Amino acid sequence: MSGVNGAAHGASLSLDHDLVSPFTALQAMAESSRCLYCYEAACVTACPTSIDIPGFIRKIGTGNVKGAARTILDANIMGGTCARACPTEVLCEQACVRNKAEGEPVLIGRLQRYATDVLFKAGVQPFTRQAPTGKRVAVVGAGPAGLACAHRLAMLGHEVTVFEARAKAGGLNEYGLAAYKMVDNFAQREVDFILSLGGITLKTGAALGRDVTLAELRQDFDAVFLGLGLASTNTLGVVGENLAGVADAVDVIAALRQKSAPPVALAGRRVVVIGGGNTAVDAAIQSLCAGAEEVTIAYRRGTAEMGATGHEQDLARTQGVVLRTWLAPREILDIGGAVSGVTLERMALEAGRLVGTGESVTIRCDVVLKAVGQKMAPGGLDGLALASGRIQVDATLATSLPGVYAGGDCVKSGEDLTVQSVADGKAAAFAIDAYLKA
Ligand SMILES: Cc1cc2nc3c(=O)[nH]c(=O)nc-3n(C[C@H](O)[C@H](O)[C@H](O)COP(=O)(O)OP(=O)(O)OC[C@H]3O[C@@H](n4cnc5c(N)ncnc54)[C@H](O)[C@@H]3O)c2cc1C
Ligand code: SF4
């Protein structure tokens, strides 16, 4: 996914270079002057974190750039990441009235990045904490949902301990978002910024269900927030899935983000990515960046049904990825235990149902990357009610257990996006605060 409006299409990407070049001060000033400062602005309604967009753009226009950043971060503490990774083309920028008049929205994402970058460069923490409440909250998962929740709870005067299974905080900001959206170690710089508020203790390498139980957390803390994300992946369920050369796309992306060797070699290889979401597009583009010779995305439905936005699909095509649709994998072929190709069945819609036509095609390849969705990892959720494979929550993000709240990808509150997870984390913090003060 991307806040990639204005990205230089056609230019080839690399894992170390920004997809979109940041605005200079002059460019930001000029772009801010395009905003009409709409009353009841549609762009604000389209943002899951309801950032006061005309408000921050006005501040940029008057030279109060740090004030603009404060406005952004007060609504969305990960405004820096969202400025880089939000699919603005289907959120705020799609809603911008300038689209109608000129066919070109105000470039909100790039203005947001400009303002938050100025504040980060100055090393300013613009928020303070309220007087200590004496209450202690456990947050499980240091992704966007958990960190947004922790930051707001700390602002409200609570003491927060964050339990994170992995070695680094940041969740998919650190291990998932495409490298070319998060250059210069931005995910960790943002984590440091969030923690610099104080009142938040981060424990990495501490997993719920392995190192601590939910019952223990409920006993030791006054409330618990679960921001676990979707830590497990779906399988294809076809012959050949366990061959050398087959890997989960998220594992490949995580390795490339950490600059370690991916589970399958990509340089000089022919890669087929199975799936139609943003993970598929990110894995395909990053495979090319890592030296793959040719990359094909195979998706079982049409481009209109792909989870990846039209903008992302265009980005993939301009980078040289081949998009093939209406193809579902049936078998991964091997030569001596290694992948030699994938056979796919042509699919069609019959009375609205997706069915196989019986006709098959084979794409020769050396690597197959699976990008067919993530799901909740089992374990650690003792006593919690689930709904459709995610944690069941009510409108306040309260789970079925008193004092336990959840948000982000591990619940179904909206789209699985960074910005939605931040919105959930913030909303849950206010709900927890009300619960603790009741
Ligand atoms: C490859 C990929 C690319 C994406 N690109 C974009 C994009 O460009 N733009 C966008 O808006 N969205 C994107 N998304 C979606 C976005 O990353 C997620 O919606 C968002 O990160 C969810 O935040 P979260 O906090 O709920 O979960 P996560 O970011 O997954 O964080 C959950 C955290 O909980 C930890 N955890 C899990 N289980 C346990 C446990 N038992 N104990 C302790 N800790 C645990 C995990 O290690 C992790 O740090 C992408 C997703 C993927 C997979
Ligand atoms: S809709 Fe566009 S023009 Fe109106 S306030 Fe939002 S960014 Fe400015």
Care to describe what's here?
By secondary structure, the protein is an alpha/beta fold. The protein has 3 domains: 25-122, Alpha-helical ferredoxin (Fumarate Reductase Iron-sulfur Protein, Chain B, domain 2, Orthogonal Bundle), CATH 1.10.1060.10; 136-231 and 376-437, FAD/NAD(P)-binding domain; 233-373, FAD/NAD(P)-binding domain (3-Layer(bba) Sandwich), CATH 3.50.50. It is 34% helix and 19% strand. It contains 16 helices and 17 strands. It has helices at residues 25-32, 42-46, 53-61, 65-75, 79-85, 92-95, 98-102, 108-122, 144-155, 172-175, 186-195, 214-220, 249-257, 278-289, 310-319, 418-437; strands at residues 136-140, 159-164, 200-204, 223-226, 232-233, 246-248, 270-274, 294-298, 322-324, 327-335, 338-350, 353-364, 367-370, 374-375, 386-387, 390-391, 404-406. A 5-stranded parallel beta sheet has the order 3-2-1-4-17, with helices on both faces. The chain has a 5-stranded parallel beta sheet with strand order 6-13-7-8-9. Strands 10-11-12 form a 3-stranded antiparallel beta sheet, with no helix packed on it. Strand 11 (338-350) and strand 12 form a beta hairpin. Helix 4 (65-75) packs across helix 8 (108-122), helix 5 (79-85) runs antiparallel to helix 8 (108-122) and helix 9 packs parallel to helix 16. It is globular and about 65 Å long. The structure holds flavin-adenine dinucleotide and iron/sulfur cluster. Flavin-adenine dinucleotide binds at residues 1-2, 85-86, 140-146, 163-166, 171-172, 176-177, 181, 207-209, 227-229, 231, 250, 253, 278-279, 282, 377, 380, 408-410, 416-419, 421.
